[in-house]
Amino acid sequence: MNLSLDNIIKQAEDAFESAKDSSSLDKAKAHFLGKNGVFASLFKEISTVSSENRKNYGAIINSAKKKVEFLLSQCRDRLLNKELELRLSSEAIDVTLPGRGFGTGSIHPIMRSWERVERIFHSIGFDIVDGPEIENDWNNFTALNSPLGHPARSMQDTFYIDLKDKNNLQLLLRTHTSPMQVRHSSINKPPIKIISPGKTYRVDSDSTHSPMFHQVEGLWIDKNISFSDLKGVYTSFLKCFFEDDDLKIRFRPSFFPFTEPSAEIDMMFNTGANRGKWLEISGSGQVHPNVIRNFGLDPEYYMGFAFGSGLERLTMLRYGISDLRCFYENDLRFLRQIRY
Ligand code: DAH
């Protein structure tokens, strides 16, 4: 009996050892330890053993079974390790290969100008304010001295929205940042000294116009802010923005409904491709008394200047870009060139 059990153990060991993978090991396990396996039939024979030998018989078979189970678990561990090693070596990563690297992103040229403008005006005491791109008719036109039916409204090709706000005012995509003058000044007391950069929208598209573009509005209202303050502030802004002390600047009479007098600001470089040409850069003027009144302020006491400049225009002149559409095509060859 012991001899044949030793044999069975040896056979089981051989069968386990020769299993090449988990499934053949499972087969060998079923043969020896399964429901109809070798040990199951040995246990069945217990009924043929005399009652005084039964206990001993059972104990011997049990200990043999334990040995086989132990051998099985050893073989299973070995097989699993082998399979793991195989997988690791086939999936090996070559750590000596050079990495793909990460491309360094950069700030969009328009955002670069936006930040420059903010830094410059902030350094001379202007607050930076932000407002919605969907505006109402009052802030965008009426309060700025362009009532319904006024011909000045048609100077701007507007995207109207088929909705009104809670005060029954027509909604539209703001055509300029000037409505921020109204929003801010209606809820703040002078001195008001702000710039407000942001997106603006007009039905317009060619090499120098895009339906979405950026402006920066400026407004300084107090008891004695005059046109000469506008000249001083805007001149030093331009010299700072273009890092050019030789810049020539002129204020050319113009018309805007919300300023009186109004001026177009032109500038001229002393060097570069645009050397010697007057270039239009911004609208500006003394805020019209009607507009001051629409802010809720008394024009007898308060006065000041405003300006509205295109961020695309400032950027194109700073970097010598001739087509505004380059800004929105996301061509990395273009964007990579502007890094400072
Ligand atoms: N809002 C004007 C436009 O988009 C620009 C402008 C002109 C703004 C004169 C001003 C200003 O604040 O005073 O064409």
UniProtKB/TrEMBL annotation:
Required cofactor names: Mg(2+)
Primary location: cytoplasm
Subcellular location: Cytoplasm
EC number: 6.1.1.20
Reaction catalyzed: tRNA(Phe) + L-phenylalanine + ATP = L-phenylalanyl-tRNA(Phe) + AMP + diphosphate + H(+)
SUPFAM superfamilies: Class II aaRS and biotin synthetases, tRNA-binding arm
Signal peptide: none
UniProt entry tagged with the keyword rRNA-binding: no
Binding locations of Mg(2+): 260
Record keywords: Aminoacyl-tRNA synthetase, ATP-binding, Cytoplasm, Ligase, Magnesium, Metal-binding, Nucleotide-binding, Protein biosynthesis
Top-level taxon of the source organism: Bacteria
Pfam families, sorted: Phe_tRNA-synt_N, tRNA-synt_2d
Cofactor: record remark: Binds 2 magnesium ions per tetramer.
Gene Ontology cellular component list: cytoplasm
PANTHER family: PHENYLALANINE--TRNA LIGASE, MITOCHONDRIAL (PTHR11538:SF41), PHENYLALANYL-TRNA SYNTHETASE (PTHR11538)
Protein name stated in the entry: Phenylalanine--tRNA ligase alpha subunit
Species for this entry: Candidatus Kinetoplastidibacterium galati TCC219
Phylogenetic classification of the source organism: Bacteria, Pseudomonadati, Pseudomonadota, Betaproteobacteria, Candidatus Kinetoplastidibacterium
Gene name for this UniProt entry: pheS
